[in-house]
Amino acid sequence: MWPADDPISAYGFTAVLSSATTLLATDPPVTPAPSIAVTEVPIPATSLVQRINEYAKSHLPEPTYNHSLRVYHFGLAIKRYRFPKWTFTDETYFLACLLHDIGTTGPNLEVTKLSFETFGGLKALEVLQNLQPSFAGSPVAVAPKDQAESVVEAIIRHQDLCEKGKITALGQLLQLATIFDNTGSYANLVHPSTIRDVSTHFPRLKWSGCFASTVHEENRLKPWAHTTTLGEDEFPSKVLGNTLMAPYE
Questions:
Q1: 29 lies in a domain?
Q2: Considering only CA atoms, which of 174, 178, 185, 135 is closest in space to residue 152?
Q3: For residue 50, is it within any domain?
Q4: What is the CATH number of the domain that holds 98?
Q5: What whole-number distance in Å separates Cα of residue 149 and Cα of residue 105?
Q6: Domain assignment present for 116
Q7: 1 pLDDT band (50/70/90 cuts)?
Q8: How far apart, in Å, do the first and last CA atoms of the chain sit?
């Protein structure tokens, strides 16, 4: 009942500051981040999650799939610690995490001239709403329009690290968790034991080198790509210099 009654809150459309620095400086907690085990944050048990999880697992390389699951668990740990009033559903966040890097796969990088975040958003919309049905037989679980659009908005903007303006709460959490896993930024947001547990369940498999190579490849194919706004050399260097996650590479 609740999502239909309040899709803005349930699907993460609540507007928050784009500047993570300013947002995190507001009412900083007195206590450090709590330890949260993977088993405390189960994957939502819905037919839609099951379908999208199967899609992601079959279309993403294992390092990217594991990264997506780490982003889910790190993000919910950050949300519980810093943003407990953000009320969007775990299902919505899980869908965004699973699909946020769908545009980085080899075929998807090469099939379009769009930046990977933009193409990934379009691909996510297609998959979430089953716009090109490939399932025969029983009805397919489809995301409501508002939920799908919130996920797409978050995916398209998940590397849009702005200091001005607003972003959805879902998009901000996706940004924080991805930049945390990719560069080790905002290290105080997640307890060290949580990092260790999540990284044990979903191994990095040399993720830093894998993602840095993907960034270089996209910039080679598309010198106009949005990722260049993070610094053509600076950003992949930050990824490769991720000392927080180095012990788990």
A1: no
A2: 174
A3: yes
A4: 1.10.3210
A5: 22
A6: yes
A7: very low
A8: 43
Which residue type sits at 221? L
206: tokens are 């040399």
HSE, side-chain direction, 13 A CA sphere, residue 188: 9
The pLDDT, as a whole number, for residue 138 is: 60
Q: What is the pLDDT of residues 95-106, one digit of tens each?
A: 999 999 999 999
Q: What's the domain range around 121?
A: 43-241
pTM of the predicted protein model: 0.95
Q: Count structural domains, the chain.
A: 1
DSSP string computed for 180-241 = HHHH--SGGGS-HHHHHHHHHHS--SSHHHHHHHHHHHHHHH-TT-GGGGG-TTHHHHHHHT
Please say whether the beta carbons of 245 and 208 come within 8 A. Answer: yes
Q: What angle do CA 28, 208, 23 make, to 5 degrees?
A: 20
Domain membership flag for residue 6: no
Residue 116's alpha-carbon distances to 39, 46, 176, 216, 224, in angstroms, are 32, 28, 18, 12, 11
